[in-house]
Amino acid sequence: MTQIVQMKGMNKYFGKLHVLKDIDLSVEQGEVVVIIGASGSGKSTLIRCVNGLEEFESGHLEVEGQALAPKGGNQKMLAEIRKEVGMVFQQFNLFPHLTVKKNIMLAPQKVKNTPQTVANATAERLLERVGIGNQADKYPSHLSGGQQQRVAIARALAMEPRLMLFDEPTSALDPEMIGEVLDVMRELAKEGMTMMVVTHEMGFAREVADRVIYIHEGQIVEQGKPDDVFDNPQNERTQAFLSRVL
Ligand code: ADP
Ligand code: MG
20 to 30 A Cα–Cα from 183, which one of 34, 42, 148, 167? Predict the structure, then answer.
């Protein structure tokens, strides 16, 4: 099995706050890893480290065999890694002054020098794939939250990432729009995309995850197959958390 992400003994601080504590975590190609845990436990920080949005103080991190150094080290692989890793945030972060299609075309054209005609065709194909082929020429503010988030996913996919990171992609959505975004993610998973997903959607986690990881105060205290973690949590922290959210 090819490992896409490898973390060993990773530690991250914000000032004196020890946010990630000795994290060991590997993600294999095609694997869907869902990360759960209370607010403030370090879930966002963990996945933001994977594409270098956060620096870490010590330990080892490799993405696609390319090492990201701890703070102060040589970050020459950062640009390469970012090309391989797509990220979708809670807030969609689309460029408001660009149409939906231009939002999707921008990174391939700028970062990969993809010719305009190719970027255009890719954008149209991806918009079809996320179910909004008819919204290509609109501006983001004219779309619903669910549609905007689907554009954000298409935009990330346009770079042909080897790994997708999702940080609570449905938390800012009205309830009736959560399903359409989860459907797109479910399809991606089925097609074999490697994914790390922070979510509070436990139904999705149970159905789609290959592995569920529970983080408590910056430590992985439990992980396993979703049915095992949800139905038979071993750690009392996990039990307490799940009894609050399930
Ligand atoms: P989660 O995503 O699980 O809610 P985060 O990873 O966002 O948790 O945050 C983990 C801890 O780090 C929290 O205590 C949070 O307040 C703190 N934190 C997050 N980002 C910063 C930052 N940029 N500066 C200082 N503290 C931060
Ligand atoms: Mg978070």
Answer: 42
Cα separation of 166 and 147, whole Å? 16
175 CB-contact burial (10 Å; exposed 0-12 / middle 13-18 / buried 19+)? exposed
Helix (H) or strand (E) holding 36: strand 32-36
- The reported pTM is 0.98
| Tokens standing for residue 87 | 């990220």
Q: pLDDT by residue (tens digit) across 144-153?
A: 999 999 999 9
Let me know if 38 is exposed, middle or buried by CB neighbors in 10 A (0-12, 13-18, 19+).
middle
Which residue has the least CA distance to atom 10 on ligand 1? 42
Ligand 1 pocket, residue 41 CB under 6 Å: yes
H helices of the chain, where? Answer: 43-50, 78-84, 100-112, 116-129, 145-157, 175-190, 202-208, 226-231, 236-245
pLDDT tens digits for range 10-60: 999 999 999 999 999 999 999 999 999 999 999 999 999 999 999 999 999
Q: Which of 11, 12, 14 to mutate to test the pocket of ligand 1 (most atoms within 8 A of CB)?
A: 14
